[in-house]
Protein 1
Amino acid sequence: MATDEMTVKARKQPEPKLTGAVHRSRPTLDRRYLPVLGTVVVLVLMLIIGGSRYDNFLSGRVMANLLINNSFLIVVAVGMTFVILTGGIDLSVGAVLALSTCISAWMFVHGWPAYVAIPAAILAGALIGWAVGVMVHVFEIQPFIATLAAMFLARGLCYVIAPESIPITDPTIVKLGTRWDLGGGWAITPSGVIALAVVVVAFVTLHYTRFGRTVYAIGGGEQSARLMGLPVARTKVLVYVISGTCAGLGGLLFAAFSSSGYSLTGVGMELDAIAAVVIGGTLLTGGSGFVLGSVLGVLVLGLIQTIITFEGTLSSWWTKIVIGALLLVFVILQRLLVVRRR
Amino acid sequence: MTGLAQLTRHRLFWPIVALVVLLLASTLKSHSFLEVTVRDGHLYGAPIDILRRSSILLLVALGMTLVIATRGIDLSVGAVMAIAGAVTLTQIASSPDPGAVSTVAVAMLTGLAVCLVIGVFNGFLVAVLGIQPIIATLVIMTAGRGIAMLITGGQITTVTSAPYKTLASGFWLGLPVAALIAGVFFAVVALVTRRTALGVLIESVGINPTASRLAGVRARTIIWTVYVLCALFACIAGFLQSSNIMAADSNNAGLFIELDAILAVVIGGTSLAGGKFSLTGTLVGVLVITTLTLSITVIGIPVNAVSLFKALVVIVVCLLQSPVVQHKLRARRRQAAPVPVEVPA
C-alpha cells in the first residue's frame, strides 16, 4: 500500500513539472525576440502604408535602392551593435567614416594604388578604435568621453588631410558603386554585397563564436564575466577595434556612394547608427540585442526617408521628427517589456 | 613637498595647469593678450572676450553638471537652444513692434515655457518611466532641430530688436551683459546647492537612487527637477546665442554644444558615474574650453588643425585625470618620500 502510494507519487511527480515546462515554452516565442519583432511589425506597416499610398513604392527598384543607399550605414550600425552590446557607446563612427573617405581620396590623388589605399583607410579606422579601446579599458575613461575625444581627433585629421572636397576617380572605388541588374528593377552594387557580407560575418561571430558569447557576457555584467574567467580586457578593446574597422569600411562604401572624400561627411551619423541599433531592439545597457535587428533598424530609417521623398510635399525636417517619435515609441516599449519581465 | 603633493593631487590641478599654459602661450605670442583696456566706458580685451564667449557654454554646463551629478546625461541641450531661439525670434519677428521691451519679454517667456515643457518631458522619461537618460534625451536631440525648423518654417529667422540685441552685445557696469547673466545664474545655483541640503540630496540620488529614496529623499522629484533646470538653462543659452547673431539658425544653433558641455563638466572633475559634482570645476572646464578655442588663433595654429589640437588637449587632460595614471603618480611620489603618511584613497 505504502509502496504503491510512493510509486504513484514518484510517477506523478515529474508529470506536473513536464507539463509546466511544455506550458512555459509553448506560448509565442522567446521574450528576447520581442523588441526585434516590434521592429519587423513597424517595417511591414511602413511597407503597407507606402505601398497603398504611392504607385511603384513596392517596386524592386525602390527596395533595392533602400539597401544600396544605406549600405554604409548598415556596416557602421553593425560595428556599433558590438560596442553597445558590451554596454559601451561609440560616438566616433561618423568622424572615422569621414577620415576613411579623406585618407583614401588623398592617397588616390597622390598616386597610390587601390590595394594600398583601401587597406590603409580601413586600418586607420581600426587604429582609432584600438586607441579608444585602450583609453576605455586601460585608463578607465568612460566610453562616452573616450569616443568623443576620438571623434574630435578623427575630424581634426580630416581637416588636415582634406580641407576641401577631393573627388575620387579610382576605378576600384567607382566599381563599388556600379549596379548589377538582377531583373525586375532589382539591382545590387558591390557595396551592397559587402554590407550583406559584413552582416553575415557579424551574425556568425556574435552567435557562434566564443568571442561573441563574451561580448554578450560583458554586457550582462562585466564583473561576472571577469569572475567566469572570460577574456574581458581583450574583448572590450576588440569591440572598439571592430566598430572602428566597420566605420573605416563604411567610409569606403560612402566614398563609392558620393565619389569624393570630404572632411564634413557623416556629421551626426553616429546618432543615426545609435538610433538604428535602438530601433532594432538592442538595449543600451548592453547584453541584449541582435545584429539583424540593427539592420532592420537601418532599413526603418531608410524607409522613413523614402516615404518622405515619395510624399513630396513634406519638408525634410519631418524626417528628424518622425525618427525622434519612433525612437520614443521603441524606447517606451522596451522599457515596458523590461518592467513586465521583472 | 607635502604641500606641493597635495596641490598636484587636487582634482582641479591639471585643468588649471592647462588653463595657465594656454594663457601663457597666448601671452608669449601676443604680449597684449592679457591686457584689459577701457573703451567707451566698457572693458575691452581678450580676458573680457573669454568671459563673454564662455557665458553660453557655462549656462549649458551648469545644468549639465546637476544632471550628471544624478548619474544622468542630457544630450538634448543643443536642440533645446535651437528651439528657444526659434520660438522667441519667430514671435518677435511676427509682432508689430519688435523693438519694444514688452514684446521681447513676452517672447522670451514663451520660449522659456516651451523649454520648460521639454524639460518636463525629459524628466518624465527618466524619473517616472525609468528610461536611460542617454537614450531618453536622444529623442529630443534627434527630433528637436526638426521641431525648431518646423517653427521657423525651415528658414533662418532674422530680427532687428535693440532690447534683444543687448543680451549678447550689451555692457552693464563695464562688463558684458551675457557674462553677467551667466555669472548670476552660476552664483545662484552654487548658493542654493552648497548652502542648503539640495546639493547633498542631488549627490545622494546620484550615488544610489533606491537607497536615497528609502532614506526619505524624494529621488524622483529631484531627478525631474534637474532635467527641467537643464532645459531652462539651455533655453537662456539659446537666447544669448540667437541674440549674438540676431537670427534663429535651427541647423547650427548650439550644434555639438552638448559634447563641449559634457567635456567641460568632466574636465572639471565631475564623474559621469554621478554622485559628486563640482561647480567650480565646471567653471574651470568651461574656461579651459573657451580659452582653448580663442588662444588657438592667437598662438597661430592653422584653422584646419583646431579640432586636432582640441582632441589632443582633451585626451591629455583625461589621461592625466584617469584613475590609473593618478595611482601611478601617487605611487612614484610615495617612493620618493619614504614616510608614507598618506591615506590611500
Protein 2
Amino acid sequence: MDPHTQQTILDAVQQHGKENLIVMLGTPSPEAAAIAAETVTTGDPTYAGPLAETRLGLTVYHILEEQVRAAIDPELYDQQVGLMADTLDGPAIAAAVAQARAALASE
Amino acid sequence: MAKPVLIAAAAALAHAPGLIALGSKPAREIARDPSVAARIHANLRGFDAAVGYAPNQAFIGSVHPRAMGPRPHFNRILDGGQRFGPDGEIMPETEFLGLMALADQFKLIRLSPQLAQSSAEALMRHPLHDFFDPGKLRSAIGDPQVEVSRGAIPLHVTDTGIAGSLAAGHHEDTNLMAHVLAENLACKASGALALAHLLKLHDLDPASIDYVIGCSEEAVGDRYQRGGGNLGKAIAEMAGCVEASGADVKNFCAAPVPAIVIAASLVAAGVFRRVAVVGGGSLPKLGMKFEGHLKNSMPILEDSLGAVAALIGEDDGRSPVIRLDAIGRHRVKSGSSAEAIMDALVTAPLDQIGLKITSIDDYATELHNPELTEPQGSGNVPERNYRMLAAMAVRQKLIAREEIGRFVADHGMPGFAPTQGHVASAFCYLAHARRGLTDGGADRIMMMAKGSLFLGMMTGQSDGMSFILERNRG
Amino acid sequence: MFAGKKIIVIGERDGVASPAIAACLAATGCEVVLMATECFV
C-alpha cells in the first residue's frame, strides 16, 4: 500500500479511534488484498510505509466478500461492483482478507 | 467533411539502464538507502538482452503481441530479434545520451570527450543521422566530473567515473531543476526519435507536417506556468518539421487518445492536412517496480523509454479511417464504477453506429507488459481489461460465460509495453493496428485509454476516451 | 453489519474504485470517513 495512503489511515485512526472503524478494500488481486489487509491489521508486510511494524488491528473487509455483498442493496451492488465481481477472482480475494482477519484474531 | 485516416505510426525504445537511478521510485529509495544503487546496478540487463526481449520486439513491430511465444520472456532471446524493426528501433544508451545532448539547446548536458565521440560515431552510422546532425555533439563536450562537483546531476556513470552530467537550468526555479530537465529532455529526445522514424519509414517530407500534438506525460514549464510548456513543437523542431507548429494535450495516461481524436478533428475540419501526435518516454517511470524484480531474482526490466508517433491525414483511400462518429468518452456524470466506465468507452460509441462488442476484431487497451507489473503484485493489467470486456459481453448476452476465455484470446492480446502509461494505453498498438487494417485481416480495431485524474487531486473523477479504426474501403 | 460504523475505503483503479464502494455503503447507515483510490500502473 502506498506510504501516503498508510499515513492517511493512521491519521484517520487517531481522529476517529479504532473502536467503530472498518477498512473496506477494493484491491483487484488476492496478493494485493492480502498485503492491504495485513497492513491495516498486523502491519505493513512490505515495510514501505508508516504502518510497518504498527499493529493497528482494524476490522477489514473486501467489497467482493459475500457477507459484504449481502449487506448491500443487490441492485445498487450490481450497478457499482457487478462487472468487477464478474471479472476478478472474488473467492480467492475473500480468502486472502479472511486470512488476515484470522491472523489478527489468533494473536 | 474530410475523412481522417491514420497515415502512419512508428515506435522507438531507448534502452537506458543507466538512467534508472533517476527514475522516481529508484531515486527515492536510493536517497533513503544508498546501498540500493549497487543492488540496482548489479541487476541491469545488457543491450543484447533488451533487443532479444520479445515484448520489445513487439513494441517495434517485428512480432505481433499474440505471437511473442510463451512466458517468461525475460530469460530468453527471441529468434531473429534485431535492433531495427518495421516500426522503429531499440536504441542503445550511448546513442541515446548523445540524442539527449542534441535535444538540449541550453548546454546543460556535458559529456566526456570519450562518450561524446563514441556517441557521435554511432549516430553518424544511424539511418536517421540526417535528422540529428551528430557533428554538433562536439559542443556538448565538457568535464562532467567538475560539473557534478558544482551541483549538476550525474547522467552517465562508468567504471572510470562520471561521463555525463546535467546542470540545473535555473538555481531557484524547482521546475527547471536538473532532474526535471532530465525527464523533459529524455521525453523530447525519445519523442523526436519516434517521429523521425515515422517520417523516414514512410518516406514523408518533414515539411509536409502542419501540426504536432505532444501527448507525453511530462509537464514542461517554469515557476509561473508549471505545466504550461509544450513538447509538441520542441519535438517538431528536432525532427525537422519546419512548417509545423504544435501544442500539448494532457490527460494522464489517457492523453494519446484525445490527442489523436483532436488531430483527426483538425484534419476533418480542413484546418490542417497532416497532424502528427507524439508521445515521448517517461523517465520517472524507469525502475518503478524494480523492487518486485529484485525480490524475484529478475533483471530490472523497466529499463527502456518508450515513444510512439502517429500521423493523421486526409483520406488516401488506403489507410485506416478514424471513425469520428463513434468516439467514446467518460462523462462527468458517468460515475466511477467499472461498468459505467466500460459503458461510456465501449458500449455507447458502438451503439451510436449500430455495432456490438463482438463487432470489433482487436481491442487495444492498457497493454502494460505483465512481466513488469506482476512481480510487484500489480497483476496482469491487460488481461484484467479483457476479462472486463468479456464480462460486459456476457452481461449483454453476446457470448456465454464459458466463452470468456476464448473472447479474451480472440479480441485481446498479451501486454508488451513499458509501464509508461500513455504509451501502454493503446498508443503502442497503433502501428500494429494500421498493419492489421491494411495488409492484415482486421476490419475494426478499438483504441481505448483510461486516465486516473484523481491522482492530481483536482477532482475525484476518472477519465477515458476511445475511438474506432476501420479498414478503408476506398 | 455497517450501521453506526465509520468506514475507511481503500479502492483501487484496477479493482473497485473507492467512489463505487462508497456508493454501495451509502444506504447501510455507516459513515465513510476516508476515501482513497490507489493506482499502481
